[in-house]
Amino acid sequence: MTLTPREREVLSYVMAGRTARSSARAMGISPRTATKHLENAYRKLGVSNRVTAVLAAREHGLI
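^ Helix-turn-helix transcriptional regulator, sequence as received from the core. Prediction below:
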């Protein structure tokens, strides 16, 4: 399983407790784009929410 650099970046902000809006601001992208990166990461990780996405990404050494 492979996540793009942006998907990993947005997950690292989520892991730090940031919202999609706050993550987007830090990344210099729109909140909708940050949310889309997060949704793509969910799909690739086979999860449906932020907490399990972070746990799965950490478990696989992706973040």
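The chain has four helices and no strands.
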